[in-house]
Write a structure and sequence with these properties.
By secondary structure, the protein is mainly α. Helices cover 85% and strands 0% of the residues. It has helices spanning 2-15, 20-39, 43-63, 68-87, 91-111, 116-135, 139-159, 164-183, 187-207, 212-231, 235-255, 260-279, 284-304, 309-324. The termini are far apart.
Length: 325
């Protein structure tokens, strides 16, 4: 459908190149194909379409710099490219695009303070910068951006408590701060944020059980609590959360086997249970079984998405775990 969409928007634009709506429609079609290739794990294809999208959104904005729709479109284009370069492991490129995104959303939010969409875009851009600085090892910078993100997502949710996107945004903010405090070794603080994350993701999933994004968010929240309780030495709680996570990731993958994110999520669930049983020393056979299951999924992921740095890194780690056993 997106290929048919691209064909028509291309024809419209080429027959009327001065029509900004047709040009914008073509940019959107490139973006949609980029998103779809991302979900399929084809990052090189995704990158090409996101670059085509950026070229057009830049031209639209530069020809009408006061048009907030075009400015917002350009900010989103920067976000898509930043996310793709993150998946490719090219963090310097990602950082540049996320910084460009943040500048535009700060300007949009300042000039349109009542526009919740721009405020939400700014919150997401802060979160992106926080994640990138975390990966670059600059934790003080990362913490500041995550705190800025939380401030905005809290305001958005409290002023619109029935908006599920804002509720989900606040949940993600809690998760990011939980991860940040885990990196800083402050596990009690991390636990509090992960419990807040679980509370919201549970509410979102229970009110929208067919929404795979919310189901995936709930699975991730179980994983985070499992990891934190493992670090705190509370293994009974940890195992319970890891098993809850596995149940959901299995269901997500089985109902969406071509979605590489869900496939990777299931591989991670198996790997976490493998690590859990490996740490018990006496349960190496169970650990090996889970690591083998993770390895099979990761082999497919690496084969289908060879440019995804996370899949390659996870596959190497699983092989190392199996060699050690």
């Amino acid at each position: 459908y997106f290929e048919d969409y691209l064909k028509l928007t291309k024809e419209l634009y080429e027959s009327n190149p001065k029509n900004v709506d047709f040009k914008n429609g073509l940019a959107i079609s490139y973006s949609k194909l980029g998103e779809t290739y991302t979900s399929l794990g084809k990052l090189d294809n995704a990158l090409k379409y996101f670059e085509d999208d950026l070229k057009l959104t830049k031209e639209l904005y530069e020809s009408s710099p006061k048009n907030v729709r075009f400015k917002n479109g350009l900010a989103i284009s920067y976000f898509k490219l930043g996310s793709t370069y993150t998946s490719l492991g090219k963090l310097d490129n990602a950082l540049k695009y996320f910084e460009d995104e943040t500048v535009l959303f700060e300007e949009l939010s300042e000039s349109n303070p009542k526009n919740v969409g721009f405020k939400n875009g700014l919150a997401i851009s802060y979160s992106n910068l926080g994640s990138t600085y975390t990966s670059l090892g600059k934790l003080d910078k990362a913490l500041k951006y995550f705190e800025d993100d939380l401030k905005l997502t809290k305001e958005l949710y409290e002023s619109n408590p029935k908006n599920v996107d804002f509720k989900n945004g606040l949940a993600i903010s809690y998760a990011k701060l939980g991860e940040m405090y885990t990196s800083l070794g402050k596990l009690d603080k991390a636990l509090k944020y992960f419990e807040d994350y679980l509370k919201l993701t549970k509410e979102l999933y229970e009110s929208n059980p067919k929404n795979v994004g919310f189901k995936n968010g709930l699975a991730i929240s179980y994983a985070k609590l499992g990891e934190t309780y493992t670090s705190l030495g509370n293994l009974d709680n940890a195992l319970k959360y890891f098993k809850d996570e596995l149940k959901l990731t299995k269901e997500l993958y089985e109902s969406n086997p071509k979605n590489v994110g869900f496939k990777n999520g299931l591989a991670v669930s198996y790997a976490e249970l493998g690590e859990f049983y490996r740490n018990k020393k006496t349960e190496n056979n169970i650990a090996r079984e889970y690591f083998q299951k993770a390895k099979l999924l990761l082999e497919d992921l690496v084969q289908d998405s060879p440019t995804n740095s996370e899949f390659g890194k996870n596959w190497l780690q699983i092989n190392k775990e199996l060699d050690n056993l």
